[in-house]
Each structure stands twice: as structure tokens, then as C-alpha cells.
Amino acid sequence: MKGLHIDQFTPDYCPEDKNFTLADYEGEQPRWCKGCGDFAILTALEKVLATNKTPANELVCVSGIGCSSRFPYYLKTFGFHGVHGRALPISTGVNLANPKLKVVTIMGDGDCFSIGLGHWIHALRYNPNLLVLVFDNEIYGLTKKQTSPTTPLGTSTRTTPDGPYLPPLNPLKLIMGATGVSFVAQAATWMPAHLTASIQKGFEHQGLSFIRVLQRCPMFSPQAFGDGGKQRELFQFITDPEGIRVDPSLAQVAGQITHDPRDLRAAQELANSSDHSENPSPLGLLFQDPSLASYDQIRLGHLPSLSPKEKGALLMKKLKSYGS
Ligand code: SF4
């Protein structure tokens, strides 16, 4: 696990008075390719952290494997570069161990929707208090252009040169069919203000905030999402007073649709009909149910209030029971 150095904290450290800037969260120099959409996501998240005056030592960034999963190195917070597809169980464990920490989970489309799919569905059902960002560029970038679950038909890749044999998975359709889902949004890296507003909305939510971020990989999927949003007819912004703000200047880059994010059935229908090819894909808040209890609230609410000494004794008793 990547950690912070003790000298990053000063005795007079006081978040209330401190003026946070992006520099407070900047870790190592990113090594993504030039023009990669990951840069926009990193900046958007840093802006949200600064706006919310989040102390770096109160945040844990957990990732799986992939280009996106280098994120923990580039944030000056606690971090855990995990195992392929396993970022969500690690994140859930961090959340349960210390619910006071803010947990941001970073995954790619192959990471989350393929090897990690089982963990994804169950994490949605458990609804732990996590901000989950899935960078979807419709390709495996780190392993140099292999077909991922969201690769569109007709896309030549190194594993399927004539294009995938199967139609792509629609993550929004799948997620809106999961029991216990409490927050679903979609944003795109080429609309940074809307992306930042989407992350801010997810940051404020209690429970699992799932944000699918459409992201171009200039190296291996430059054509993705209509060459990175150049085709206006492929997208539509969701507008609702309770949703994510859409700047009027964005009217040129996508259409608009009114949708109530509290309406589960309407969100399911919207997700079912979005596939970028025949129907515009929605950008914004598809669904939110703030009344759902998060998993840490359910689990920790059932625990008796114990002192650290009593917790230690209970743990030792449990461990000894395995050896007897
Ligand atoms: Fe970004 Fe693609 Fe390069 Fe990976 S291969 S860093 S996703 S541009």
C-alpha cells in the first residue's frame, strides 16, 4: 500500500482554514500517453477534492490493473494498487475498517466489466460508501488493444482483428438491473466541467456512487464515442434540477433530455435504450436513491459500541477459535 510521509503533515494543519489547491493532491508525474483522457479525470477529481477541502490523509484511492489503475501513484493520498478486477472488495474492506475515510475506486472497462464483473454486481448490491469511477475507453489499453466487453462490433483489435464476435455489453443496462443500486451517472472526458460536476455529485452521495466515464484512448481507440464526442447525435444531456448541472455552452456538443433521476423505471428504460449507435447515450445523473442504507451503516450499526481494548479481546477470541 502506498503511504504518505509523516512530513507531509504539519502540527498546525487545519482543514477549515486551509486553502486547498490541486497541488495538495498531486503525486508522481503521470506517465499516460499524450492526449489520454485519464488526465482529465485526474484533474477533475483533484478539483473536487480541493473544493471539498478533503485532507489528503482522509482519502484512500484503490485501483485494479490497467492504465487507469496507476491513479493511486498520481494522487498524494493513501493508495492501494490492487489486483485485476478486485478493486471493489478491497475498497469495501477499507470502508468497513474505517468508515471515516473517503474511498475512491478506480477501474477500467476490462477491469470492472470483465474479470471484475462479479465483484461489481455484488458491490452495487451491498452499496458501501464508495466513489467508483470506471474509465471506459472500449479497449484494453495497457495490454495494447485487446477486445474488452464494451468494444463495439467492427472494431479491429489484436485479439479479434475482424472485430468482436459479440455485441458490446451495455454497462448502464446491467447496472440499472442490479438490486440495491443507489447512484448512477455517466460523463465524458472531453466535457471537463460536466465531468467535474458529475464527480462532485457522486462525492456528496452516501452509498456507492457509480460513474462511468467515457474516455478516449488516442493510442488504441481514437475512434471511440464518435471520435471523442465529435458526433453530436450520439449523446444527450440529462437535465433535471436535482441532477448534474449542464452549462448552456454545452448545447452545441450534445442534445438534451428531461429525466427524473428518482424514477427507477424511467432510469432503466433510459439505460436500456442507450447504445451510442442507434440511440443517443445519456450524460448526467441517471438514478439516485439517497434513502438506501449503505453497507457500512448496516454492518456497523449492528455492532455493539466497544472500546479498542474490548475489540482487540474480541478479535483474539475469534482468532483463537480458528486454531482450536
Ligand atoms: Fe491512455 Fe490509451 Fe495510453 Fe493507456 S494506452 S495511457 S488508455 S492513451
Task: Give a brief description.
It is globular, with a radius of gyration of 20 Å. The protein is 31% helix and 16% strand. It is of the alpha/beta class and 324 residues long.
Mean pLDDT: 91
What small-molecule ligands were found? iron/sulfur cluster
The unreliable regions are none
User: Termini distance?
Assistant: 32 Å
What does this structure look like?
It is a single chain. With 324 residues, the protein is α/β, with parallel strands linked by helices. It has one domain (6-323): Thiamin diphosphate (ThDP)-binding fold, Pyr/PP domains (Rossmann fold, 3-Layer(aba) Sandwich). It is 31% helix and 16% strand. The chain has 11 helices and 9 strands. The chain has helices at 38-51, 71-74, 87-97, 109-115, 117-126, 171-175, 192-204, 224-229, 264-272, 295-301, 308-323, and strands at residues 59-63, 78-81, 102-108, 131-136, 183-188, 209-214, 235-239, 255-258, 281-288. The chain has a 9-stranded mixed β-sheet, sandwiched between helices. Helix 2 links the parallel strand 1 (59-63) and strand 2 (78-81). Helix 1 (38-51) crosses helix 7 (192-204) and helix 4 (109-115) packs across helix 5 (117-126). It is globular. 46% of the residues are buried. Bound molecules: iron/sulfur cluster. Iron/sulfur cluster binds at residues 32-33, 36, 38, 67, 137, 141-142, 217-220.
